[in-house]
Structure prediction request, 329 residues.
Amino acid sequence: MKASAIANANIALVKYWGKRDKKLMLPNNGSISMTVDGMSTNTTVEFDPKYDKDAVILNGKELPEGGFDEFVNHLNLIREMAGIKEKAKVATNNNFPTAAGLASSASGFAALSVAAAKAAGLDLDKKELSMLARRGSGSASRSVDGGFVEWLRGENDDGSDSYVVQIAKPDHWDFRMVTAITSTKEKKVKSRAGMAQTVATCPYYKGWLETVSEDLDKVREGIKEKDFTKVGETAELNCLKMHATMMTTKPPIIYWNPTTMRIIHSVLGWRDEGMEAYFTIDAGPQVKILCMEKDVEDIKKRLSGIEGIEKVIVCRPGGEARLVDEHLF
Ligand code: PMV
Prediction:
């Protein structure tokens, strides 16, 4: 059977960095994100006896054999859950740069999970879908739901309590994210390898873990109370703490480029002038500026004066991953 789904990317306001179980993709800490519209993945999956091997077409190009192990592992997991053996054809399109620190794995595995579960005949609820997406990429669990969500760390060894819950719906408030793309090159260290290296070698990783629950409490409360300052301040500091652990691993992982730094200093300067904007950065060089709707145009104008920015994308809170009727093949 064939099914298609669309899922949005998400931006972590409190980051997930480090696993307690690599196979089940269980995190060392909980995380909170906003699902964003405007950056999404559209995926069609068909399981059929006519296919003698799995095939993946990413942004119109068929991936070479052996070049999509993470997809095959995920399809295997879904085949096992559904008790089917058929191979699959997968077509998946991102409407934003892939693997450059823009959460393509989050929207990608969320869309793949929703489409493939349906195509395999599974009937999963949102909680189960978030646990399934988690197995493909941790942050993908958060893209299953819309608005502002929390991925619970959980305590159980089998991962049964590590799933996503919604904090607020997409239309809760006028929160916006302005992304400045500073490079579309594929990053050298993927988040999976980067976080494993951090857990293994960073002397400050313990300090990261010790302060995350306080950040989670502040951001969760800030969202509910619509307290932008509380959310922005906490999210920015949380991002810097995560990058501090990355930079102090062996060998160091520095995702920022000179343009990233220029934007960071600019945002800090804008704040000194009284504008409420904060930055956050994932495992890549792009800077995401968190702001309220009223400041978006001013921020876009200010960004246009900074050297090295390739593109600016404005996102609002987005909706949950969903099945769609149109197929890609
Ligand atoms: O689940 P992954 O492999 O996409 O890792 C996500 C890591 C960060 O983007 C840096 C943080 C986060 O919580 O999204």
Summary: The chain has a mean pLDDT of 96. The longest strand covers residues 31-47. The pocket of PMV is lined by residues 12, 15-16, 31, 105-106, 137-139, 191-192, 282-283 (CB under 6 Å). The CA atoms of residues 280 and 313 lie 14 Å apart.
